[in-house]
Amino acid sequence: MLIICMIYAMQADAMDVNEGRLRILGETAKSHQVAGLITTIRSDLRVLAETKEVQYDKLLLDAPCSGIGVLSKRADLRWNCKLEDMEELKNLQDDTCSIDSEENQGRAEAFLLRHPEFLVDPVDRLVPSRFVTPQSVFLSNPVKHSLDEPFAARLVRAL
Ligand SMILES: C[S@@+](CC[C@H](N)C(=O)[O-])C[C@H]1O[C@@H](n2cnc3c(N)ncnc32)[C@H](O)[C@@H]1O
After folding, report:
1. Is 16 annotated as contributing to ligand binding?
2. For residue 67, which atom of ligand 1 is closest to its CA?
3. Is 124 a known ligand-binding residue?
4. Is 105 helix (H, G, I), strand (E, B) or coil?
5. Which helix (H) or strand (E) holds 58?
């Protein structure tokens, strides 16, 4: 739901600068009876990346993008996070609501160039083959498939 969901054992830390989004997450978690598993943290991810006081094994990044994959609903034009801030991680899932390859494959490829210790974890065992690109990441067509999250890449630290 939020920009990142950091998972440690059965616990998840959800971080966002937007208090309203965190409140909605808290309410949703409560209604699904998993509130005890999620800690919401109001913070700027860039600050966390600089202090590096916390380390996680897995991270789901739903970073701000142009949102052009869901233009019928909204357009979030900020792009505040840098994938390279996540270099301490073992697993990273990068999702966007965009159909712009520069914001999708372009970001993942640039990260992999800077971090050769990471590899793409192929998504073909997780989603139908029509959503799997030759680079083994998830890509859907919002018009054709009526899905709001057009892109996802799973990156795993190999070394
Ligand atoms: C694409 S939206 C994620 C929306 C979320 N998946 C949801 O369904 O509510 C990106 C989120 O990143 C948050 N955000 C933007 N810059 C941030 C930053 N520097 N640190 C933490 N959160 C940030 C925004 O407040 C926004 O909620």
Report:
1. yes
2. 1
3. no
4. helix
5. strand 58-62
